[in-house]
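note to self: dont lose this again. the chain is below, predicted strucutre after it. 235 aa total, dont forget to put it in the shared folder this time
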Amino acid sequence: MGPTNEGELTQRQMQKVMGLVAQIFEQSRGFKVHPPKEVTDDPKILSSRSISEKLVSTKWWLRVNDGEETILTFCELLSLVHQLRELKRRLDEGPQSGKVKASFKFAMKQLLEPDTAIRLLATLKIEGIERKQVRVTYPLFGLHDGEGGKDAQLIGTQHPQSGYDIVFIFTDESLADRFAVAFQCGRVARIADDVETFKQVLKRCQYTLVAFDPVCRNGQVEVNAMAFVKEILGE
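---
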């Protein structure tokens, strides 16, 4: 029984997801997610603007530790991850009276939005898909387009596959200096000495992704580690 024409989950699918939430969250069990062939053949699809369009008809295999194995549709998987994140967020906000329960007060259409789908799947450890972990150390440096101060704009570029706007951030000033010379744009500036200041910097800019310590070779930008701005901000 698949999603309705509006993309929402059916009652049976909701019950299925709720059962998995109970196993994973309430019983503190881990789980593994195995992707479909579409993802293993082209992992870049996980950061593509067409992620939902290309994966909406796919099936994902989920195995709960010491529990059941099941096949999930793409929509069911997004719903599961959304529920688990919301439950954790509510617990982190402070003591709750009684049990914290999952809720289906969301529109599937919202979860299928590219930004949301990419962010949800980015929180998963997907089997067979290697993700480079980003460890941020301070101070941080960036490339400004002109004079310093709050009105200065940080320099970045556009991701060739996803089309997302990327801001260049460096954990080493010498790396930033070399990049600025090779990129032939901007001046190096110290932008943050701690995580809270870094978050304020990101809130002021309009970028979607952060590229940490990129290098510029033969006019081409190479990036090994990236993170979504919303992930860093905890949104």
